[in-house]
Amino acid sequence: MNWIDTLLGRKPAASSSASVAKQRLVEVLVQDHVKLTPDVMDAIRRDISAVLSRHLDVDVDALQISVTRSGRGDNLVANVPVRRTATSR
């Protein structure tokens, strides 16, 4: 049955929580390597939300910023939930 779960994209709960924990650890280590302090991450978060809020209705509380590492280097990743466009207000 394991191959069916793999085919359908289902993973055991322990495996997915372990991978989430591993991903979080990697993000913390990358942020430490890039030398981004929590204050700098907060400043980046505020700046991104301020700029995007001029054009979009952004859910600032749900905005997530992280630094990830890929084969080509470090990446700043922003997950920005948008409620609706500013022009539709």
Describe the structure concisely for a colleague.
The chain is an alpha+beta fold and 89 residues long.
List keywords for this structure.
about 90 residues, two-stranded antiparallel ribbon, about 25% strand
Helicity range of the residues? 40-55%
Number of E-type strands: 4
Termini separation:
50 Å
Query: Proportion of β residues?
Result: 15-25%
Description of the molecule:
With 89 residues, this protein is an alpha+beta fold. The protein is 49% helix and 24% strand. The protein has three helices and four strands; from the N terminus they run αααββββ. Strands 1-4 form a two-stranded antiparallel sheet. A two-stranded antiparallel ribbon has the order 2-3. It is globular and about 45 Å long. The N and C termini lie far apart (50 Å). The mean pLDDT is 75.
What's the structural blueprint in terms of helices and strands?
Elements: H1 2-7, H2 13-34, H3 38-53, E1 56-58, E2 64-70, E3 73-79, E4 82-85
Antiparallel strand pairs: 1-4, 2-3
